[in-house]
Every structure is written in C-alpha cells, then in structure tokens.
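Quick one: sequence plus zinc ion SMILES, need structure tokens.
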Amino acid sequence: MGSNYLTSLADWCREAGLHVHEVDGWQSRARSSGGYESGRPWAIMWHHTASSTSAQNDVNYICYNCPDAPVSNFLLDRDGHVWVCAAGATNTNGKGGPIGFSKGVVPLDSMNSYAVSIEAANNGLGEPWPQEQIDAYFTLNNVLASHLGLNPDDCCTHHEWAPDRKIDPATANAVQGPWQPGSVTSSGTWSQVDILQEAIERAAGTRPPDPLPPEDDTVTDEDVQRIALAVWDTRMQLAGGTSSGSLLVDAAELDDNDVERIALKVWDTPMILADGMSSGTLLTMIQDIVERIEALGG
Ligand SMILES: [Zn+2]
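Reply:
Sure thing.
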C-alpha cells in the first residue's frame, strides 16, 4: 500500500488561480492500492469523460458510482473549474504502456499507481472545448508538474498510453482558442507532441503578476539548465515521436539532417524564451546542447 496522499492538491490549484471545488473526503480517497509510493506520481494523464452531463453527475460517477471508483484525481469541468476528487492513486488508465518520463519508465499496465489523472468533461465526439477549459487544463498540468517535481511535458494522453483502446482526449478540431492541436487518429485525438510543446511553452512563459525588482530579474544557472533540459526533451520527442524515456534510443537513430534541424531549433527556442534577458551562461548551455546533439549524430 502506498502511503503518499497528495493532500495539497486543492491548495496548489488555488495557488495557480484555478477555481476549485473540493469533493467531500477527497484527501483520503484512493483505489485499492492506496496512496502513491514514495517519489510518485511520475506522470500526469489527460483524459476526457466521454459524457454529456453536469459536472456534479460527472463527479458522482468518478467518486462513487463507477464500479472502479475513484476514476480520477480531478474533474475539469466545462467552465474550466477543477473538482478535486482523490488524493491517492485512481483507476482511470488501465492496460497500456510501457512509456517513459523524466523520472523513469512506467511499466506495462501500471499507470494507475504512477500517474495523477485528469478527466476533462467533454463527449469526445466533437463537442466544443471552451478556451477556459483548455487554459485550465494546461494550468492544472503545469502546477501539478511544478509541485510534483516533474517537467511540464511529463504528461501523457490516454491514447498515447493505450493506443489500441483509447482515443481521449478528442476531438482536436473542436478545441477553441488560439491553441490548436493536431489530430493523430481518425477520431480526432489531440496530438501528444502538440500538448507537450504547449505545456512547456506555457510553463516557460509564466510571469509573476507584478514585475520583480531588478535584483531578482535575472536568469540563474538553474533556470538555464531547466529551460535547456526542457527544450532538449521536447526536441527529442518531436524527432522520435516518443517520450523522454526512450530518448537515447531515438537519438541514436537520428540522421544528420535530423541532427541539424533539431540543433537549429534547440538553438532558436531558448533565445526566444530568454527574450531580452541575455546571459553568457545561457549561451554556453545552448552550445553544450548543440555539441551533444552533434555528437549523437556522429
Ligand atoms: Zn481516458
């Protein structure tokens, strides 16, 4: 039995500016395996409910009425409000994988005890996804990643985990707002690559509401390393179409054209993220990455 219950979930969400509903008893709700093992969760799983009902009915199903309750840690409703349903491990992911994340590879059929899971209210058949809900999806993903010590792209769609069984989240062409995910199945499943990229960009773009005093407005070595690693991970995933656990395998298969293309993008992205905050350390870090990529291309 795991003993790690994520009892700060509601506070984290409020801290991120999300509108939060706490479902009675969420702090101790879990699947039969209890809380998470020490050091987990390793991943954030993205789903849709495949429902067309009220948020309260979705919550009742997730927490009580489903034979496999609790289904997920969160319901993200159509208004972009977050309902905190469970602090322990939940049952929404089922058979699938294995798949890699920054903390390691989640073994075959084991995601339920490795992931914190979000069910977003949508029928998955073309119902519009309001921009408020999309924005809240990324905000929730990124605040979870931040507090769990994960990267913003340590997330995964249900389809990516179980491609033969699951299409969620969908549909891509029903997503409203400026972010427009590609579609990777005939059912309109959102592109995992597009989600990861957007999560990283939104995390990197986060700014405090008020300008920091000048002495704090600097790029630290830690910032540089975090951004560089995130960029590296994303570009590897874009190149290989898989997640960071398979990074070395995929990188070894890159040809020279891929290496050049990735190197240029890795070079460009941090320059954009750094926007006006010049740093000699940042340049050194980018050069290191480019050299690593070139070395991989052999
Ligand atoms: Zn699902």
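Residues 221-240 form the longest helix (20 residues). Residues 47, 92, 158, 166, 168 surround zinc ion (CB under 6 Å).
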